[in-house]
Amino acid sequence: MSVGHTEVTTAPVVSCGEQHEDCGIREVLDRIGDKWSVLIVVELARGVHRFRQLQRAVPGISQRMLTLTVRRLERDGLVTRTVHPTVPPQVEYELTAMGHSLTHLVRALADWSAEHRDAIAQARQEWDAEHPDSGIR
Amino acid sequence: MSVGHTEVTTAPVVSCGEQHEDCGIREVLDRIGDKWSVLIVVELARGVHRFRQLQRAVPGISQRMLTLTVRRLERDGLVTRTVHPTVPPQVEYELTAMGHSLTHLVRALADWSAEHRDAIAQARQEWDAEHPDSGIR
DNA sequence: CAGTATCCTTAATGATACTG
DNA sequence: CAGTATCATTAAGGATACTG
């Protein structure tokens, strides 16, 4: 079924409570809206990973960005970092319960994307055709 | 119920189909992961808006970013732009059906955020306390 | 009103080299 | 292995001025 937007004007679909105020949405997006966070979360959802293992599993990520991203996830309580004092060092990353709960959201994102990617691609093509030199893109 | 990650290693929660490949997740995030898109979508979910009206409803956005963001949303088929050839000009923005379907996702984001914002804030505090001069933040 | 056009600042990411 | 440190590059966003 489609969404059906009859009388949308008086029935806010999103309901932030207040009028023109940010819901907490930006907070989530500031956290997972970056280039790598969700990819790492998705990979960690598959199980515990060591640093290099994670890097291999997320193709294209630099050592630097992996460190930064995983640190931020740790800081936010989404990931745990366990150092085994061996030589060579071994560090394991694992999702926390809260991290796992995020995967539900990620799933929703993936589902929406899968459902609409074709329609979006088509809309883009048409728009681009009608707006040749627009700077947008 | 909680997430329960027994034997996660062999049971991917997110299921991208392929192993270490991006699901379509990045495509959604590239679209709504920016600073303004969701806020505009949320506002448009309340009903049709004119340009200035939209700008007033989304405090802090510059004219430039409003134009850019709304153009991209239009290009992706999430928003329609209707020009009424009057003087002064009047332009109306409205969510498409696909745009409205996005609001479900936004709702999920808002819900997750509301549920976990306290836990995240606390995790941050603790982490910051334990890692005084870490560069992260 | 609804934009464009420019210029400028900052944040995000990448590349590379080095270390316990 | 698992990082850190530095430098370079790019992209995102903001400020301001101008226009049909």
TrEMBL record, chains A, B:
Keywords: DNA-binding, Transcription, Transcription regulation. The keyword DNA-binding applies. GO terms for molecular function: DNA binding. Residues 23-121 form the HTH hxlR-type domain. It comes from the Bacteria. It holds the Pfam family HxlR. InterPro entries: HTH_HxlR (IPR002577), WH-like_DNA-bd_sf (IPR036388), WH_DNA-bd_sf (IPR036390). This is DNA-binding HxlR family transcriptional regulator. It comes from Nocardiopsis terrae. The lineage of its organism: Bacteria, Bacillati, Actinomycetota, Actinomycetes, Streptosporangiales.
